[in-house]
């Protein structure tokens, strides 16, 4: 739950605003975002890592207003398409603090980034090095994405550091070293750093330390001065009670120690560290509100069907993600139910076996926490259901920072 969320009567108060009021005023489904929680988590990173550049992973919550908060707190921004860059431009995010990512960057992505003057482009293939080399003017700063072969022990769909996958240049195969040479050969590019991202929802600091060891080994063997070492994002956030938050201070100390040690050992200057947190900043700031539309007693389960589902939260279907669900506005003796969505698929299940009051009924409001990261970002309009708004709450006031998608929005694209 967002910081400061509390129960008053039987209502849930988020950012000083009762959830029942938010549901009534903005409709459901509604993604509520507690601004202070976002700001505090962002500041936790800059405070724990004062010498590092903290880059918000814009894909986790693409929204100009959120990008503005990050800009004002001194964070940088990572974008992975011309579309995310367009949001950053709309936010007035300084180009000098934008990093462009992606294993595929189309010509349009690269041109948009060069035109806005983003400070660094992280190259991910030999094709891209050649294409960017031809498009760029003299001295475009570049980082190389390396696959360091570190297993971050996370879901296979979001484990991006292991060998044999689509991201980056493999360290083990020598492709990473070859990429360094190719970038250096391009007169229009200047190599400033190396990047790796070992995965998402990573719990162990040791995985990052291993990445540091391997990356410094590469820095030592490549024979080129590397000023920046970007360790990517992936810092875990808790979704269920009892799950740990990421040990940010442990990370700061151990990664700094390992980096200094390895650089001394290999006799290379210590590069400036970058980190790219997304989830750890925004996940726990978000709460999604749904309205119950139907309750059905199945043979062995009770299904509680709500007015959203896999279009606003595909994470259970994609990653087997689990969520807490809470009835707002009323208490009662709990019994286990399955919360399902409105979409035309049996797999449209939001949460299995969650305790809700036995008399849960149509019209009730349900609140699902930990929905700030990769929810708005992954939402679709499957079944032509408009995507929900994002409503920012702070100090007892609420304002939409993304409005609900309307039928007009949906119709606009069709011939
Ligand atoms: N940097 C790079 C290059 C990335 O690809 C990502 C996430 C991040 C940073 C931020 O990772 P974070 O700190 O948020 O874990 N849709 C999935 C997550 C996909 C992550 C994609 N890349 C989910 O809902 O769990």
UniProtKB/TrEMBL annotation:
Orn/DAP/Arg decarboxylase 2 N-terminal domain: residues covered: 37-283
Cofactors that this protein relies on: pyridoxal 5'-phosphate
Reaction it catalyzes: meso-2,6-diaminopimelate + H(+) = L-lysine + CO2
Top-level enzyme category: lyase
Chain residues that bind pyridoxal 5'-phosphate: 234, 276-279, 374
Pathway of action: Amino-acid biosynthesis; L-lysine biosynthesis via DAP pathway; L-lysine from DL-2,6-diaminopimelate: step 1/1
Gene3D superfamilies, sorted: Alanine racemase, Lyase, Ornithine Decarboxylase, Chain A, domain 1
EC number(s) recorded for this UniProt protein: 4.1.1.20
CDD domains tied to this protein: PLPDE_III_DapDC
Residues with the N6-(pyridoxal phosphate)lysine modification: 59
Family (UniProt): Belongs to the Orn/Lys/Arg decarboxylase class-II family. LysA subfamily.
Assembly mode: Homodimer.
Function description: Specifically catalyzes the decarboxylation of meso-diaminopimelate (meso-DAP) to L-lysine.
Designated name of the protein: Diaminopimelate decarboxylase
Organism this protein belongs to: Lentzea flava
């Amino acid at each position: 739950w967002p910081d400061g969320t509390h129960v008053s009567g039987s209502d849930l108060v988020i950012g000083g605003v009762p959830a029942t009021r938010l549901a009534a005023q903005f409709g459901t489904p509604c993604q509520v975002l507690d601004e202070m929680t976002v700001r505090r988590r962002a500041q936790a990173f800059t405070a724990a890592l004062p010498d590092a550049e903290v880059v918000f992973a814009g894909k986790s919550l693409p929204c100009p207003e959120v990008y503005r908060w990050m800009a004002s707190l001194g964070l940088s921004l990572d974008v992975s398409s011309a579309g995310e860059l367009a949001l950053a431009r709309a936010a007035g995010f300084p180009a000098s603090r934008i990093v462009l990512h992606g294993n595929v960057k189309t010509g349009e992505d690269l041109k948009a980034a060069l035109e806005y003057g983003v400070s660094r482009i992280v190259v991910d293939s030999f094709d891209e090095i050649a294409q960017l080399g031809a498009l760029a003017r003299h001295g475009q700063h570049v980082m190389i994405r390396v696959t360091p072969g570190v297993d971050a022990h996370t879901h296979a769909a979001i484990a991006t550091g292991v060998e044999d996958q689509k991201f980056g240049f493999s360290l083990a195969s020598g492709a990473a070293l070859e990429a360094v040479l190719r970038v250096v050969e391009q007169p229009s590019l200047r190599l400033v750093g190396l990047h790796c991202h070992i995965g998402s929802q990573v719990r162990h600091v040791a995985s990052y330390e291993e990445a540091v060891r391997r990356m410094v080994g590469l820095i030592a063997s490549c024979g080129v001065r590397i000023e920046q070492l970007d360790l990517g994002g992936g810092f875990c956030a808790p979704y269920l009670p009892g799950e740990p938050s990421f040990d940010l201070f442990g990370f700061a100390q151990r990664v700094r120690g390992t980096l200094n040690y390895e650089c001394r050992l290999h006799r290379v200057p210590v590069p400036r560290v970058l980190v790219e947190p997304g989830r750890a900043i925004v996940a726990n700031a978000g709460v999604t509100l749904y309205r119950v539309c139907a309750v059905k007693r199945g043979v062995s389960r009770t299904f509680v069907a709500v007015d959203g589902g896999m279009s606003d939260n595909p994470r259970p279907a994609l990653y087997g993600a689990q969520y807490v669900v809470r009835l707002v506005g009323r208490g009662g003796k709990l019994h286990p139910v399955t919360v399902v969505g409105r979409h035309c698929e049996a797999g449209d299940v939001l949460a299995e076996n969650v305790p809700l009051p036995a008399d849960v009924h149509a019209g009730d409001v349900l609140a699902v926490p930990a929905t700030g990261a990769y929810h708005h970002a992954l939402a679709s309009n499957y079944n032509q259901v408009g995507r929900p708004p994002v409503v920012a709450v702070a100090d007892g006031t609420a304002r939409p920072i993304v409005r609900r998608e309307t039928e007009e929005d949906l119709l606009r694209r069709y011939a």
